[in-house]
Every structure is written in C-alpha cells, then in structure tokens.
C-alpha cells in the first residue's frame, strides 16, 4: 500500500467506506424505503404502506418484468456465444489485426446507447430486414450493447490460456472439434459464465437504446420505471425498481449456481 502508517490506512479505509455509502448504499436504501413510503415530506417517511408493492405485481408490471427477463437471457446468451466465438477466433491473429478486431467489438460502448438505438431504428425499418416494431430489435440492441463486455471477458481469459494443453491433446490424436469441446471450452467455462452473468445484469437495467426501439408490445421494466418517474409516480417507480433488483439478483444467483455445479462435477 502507498499508506504506511496505521492511522493513514484507517483514514483511507474510512474515506472508502464513506464514498461507498454515499454513492452505492444510500441510493439503494432510498429506493427501498420509497417503495414502502405512503408519504415522505421529511427526512424519513411519515407513513409506510404495502400498496406500491401490490401495484408493482399487477399484470402490466409483471408483463414488463417478464419481458426484461426474456430479453436479458436471450441478449445476454447471444452476446456470450458471439463474443466467445469471436475471442477464440481472433486469439491467434497478428497483434495489429487483433487490435483492429478489438476496436470493432468495443465500438458499441464507445458511442452513447441512444445513438446505437437510433442507428438500429433507421437500419432495420425497411425490408428485407424489417425489425422495427418487433421484439427482435430490442434483443438485437441489447446484444450489441453487451457484446463487447462478453468479448473482453473471454479475451482476457484466453490471454492467460496455456496452449500447451491443447497442443498435448492434439498430439495424442484428438481432432480439433474434440479439443474444442473437451479442453478449450471447459477451461474457459469460468470466464464464459462470468461474461454471462455480467451480460444478463447489464441487459436487465438497460434503458438508453431500449427506449429508442421498443414496441408497445415489448416494454421492459426499466422503460416502465422511466415512464412512471417521468409522470411523477416516484413511489410506484421505486417499487418496480425493487422488483427489478430482486429479479436481477435471483438470475445472478442461478447463473452462479450453474457455475458452481459445473465446477463441482469437474
């Protein structure tokens, strides 16, 4: 550490805790409290209620939550499949060519998400690829947004990959397909599952590109939350946000359990 004295380390630790409390814990705590608040005119709510949570699980909000989960799973898994394939395909390219490919895959996060959404809206509003007004343009938008994260996660794992293992398997007569399925992919599985968890979590909260392209029949929960807060219905928006946090946490736990289960069997 750069701080050598005990007093200095305690001061740095206290500042770090304070920053985390202000930037992370406090906003989440306010959202959770607001989900149960009947009225809030002072420092703390003057009354509590469960009405907002009851409204948050009505048919319309549950449909938005289901849409968010389906979109996140489809877009996240699609991004991981494409990102893993691309990372493995470019791993042994020359350095300069690999740098170009890296730049291309990171391009979606280099521009604002609304720009990406507008580009997709213009590009896919005419035949033969008419996706505007369908669920697939939302899934495509979120796939493109998280593709770079999946690609980067697997690429980082490949940079530490020991090629001697695959060379040994090949020298023993294993075909390339068998080496891929029994050696390379199992060794990359922790990175792939981490990329899946990250992609799904990001898709669950994505708003910028989604609000540009979503049709009324495929409205995700972040879009519903944005609409409620824009109309001043902060309490119901907070209740929906709480439901979104719970659903995202459950999905991440399930993905984590899949990862742990596969590791235990290995």
- The CATH class name reads Mainly Alpha
Shape: globular
Major beta-sheet overview: 2 strands, antiparallel
Give average pLDDT, whole number: 86
Do you know the CATH topology? MetI-like fold
Q: What letter string, H or E per element, gives the SSE order?
A: HEEHHHHHHHHHH
User: What's the total number of strands?
Assistant: 2
Number of domains: 1
Strand order within the widest sheet?
Answer: 1-2
**Radius of gyration, Cα only, in angstroms?**
23 Å
Helix fraction by DSSP (H/I, runs of at least 4): over 70%
Enumerate the spans where pLDDT stays under 50 for 5 or more consecutive residues.
none
| CATH architecture grouping | Orthogonal Bundle
Query: With helices defined by DSSP (H or I, 4 residues minimum), what is the helix count?
Result: 11
Secondary structure class reads mainly alpha
First and last CA, distance: 37 Å
CATH homologous group name: MetI-like
Oligomer: single chain
Task: Note the beta-strand portion.
Answer: under 5%
Walk me through the topology:
Blueprint: H1 6-36, E1 37-39, E2 47-48, H2 51-56, H3 59-90, H4 95-110, H5 113-123, H6 135-159, H7 163-171, H8 176-204, H9 210-213, H10 221-230, H11 234-265
Antiparallel strand pairs: 1-2
Describe this structure in words.
- The chain is an all-alpha fold.
- It has one domain (61-265): MetI-like (MetI-like fold), CATH 1.10.3720.10.
- It contains 11 helices and 2 strands, in the order αββαααααααααα.
- It has helices at 6-36, 51-56, 59-90, 95-110, 113-123, 135-159, 163-171, 176-204, 210-213, 221-230, 234-265; strands spanning 37-39, 47-48.
- A two-stranded antiparallel ribbon has the order 1-2.
- Helix 7 (163-171) packs antiparallel against helix 8 and helix 8 (176-204) runs antiparallel to helix 11.
- It is globular.
């Amino acid at each position: 550490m750069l701080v050598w004295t005990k007093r200095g380390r305690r001061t740095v630790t206290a500042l770090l805790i304070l920053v985390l409390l202000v930037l992370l814990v406090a906003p989440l705590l306010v959202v959770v409290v607001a989900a149960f608040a009947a009225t809030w005119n002072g420092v703390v709510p003057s009354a509590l209620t469960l009405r907002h949570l009851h409204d948050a699980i009505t048919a319309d909000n549950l449909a938005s939550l289901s849409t968010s989960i389906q979109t996140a799973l489809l877009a996240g898994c699609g991004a991981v499949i494409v990102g893993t394939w691309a990372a493995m395909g470019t791993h042994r390219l020359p350095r300069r060519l690999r740098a170009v490919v890296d730049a291309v895959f990171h391009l979606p996060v280099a521009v604002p998400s609304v720009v990406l959404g507008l580009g997709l809206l213009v590009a896919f509003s005419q035949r033969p690829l008419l996706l505007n007004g369908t669920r697939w343009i939302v899934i495509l938008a979120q796939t493109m947004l998280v593709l770079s994260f999946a690609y980067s996660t697997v690429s980082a794992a490949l940079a530490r990959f020991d090629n001697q293992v695959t060379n040994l398997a090949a020298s023993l007569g294993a075909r390339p397909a068998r080496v891929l399925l029994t050696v390379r992919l199992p060794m990359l599985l922790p990175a792939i599952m981490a990329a899946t968890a990250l992609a799904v979590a990001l898709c669950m909260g994505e708003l910028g590109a989604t609000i540009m392209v979503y049709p009324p029949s495929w409205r995700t929960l972040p879009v519903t939350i944005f609409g409620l807060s824009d109309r001043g219905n902060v309490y119901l928006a907070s209740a929906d946000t709480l439901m979104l946090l719970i659903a995202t946490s459950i999905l991440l736990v399930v993905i984590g359990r899949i990862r742990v289960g596969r590791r235990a069997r290995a």
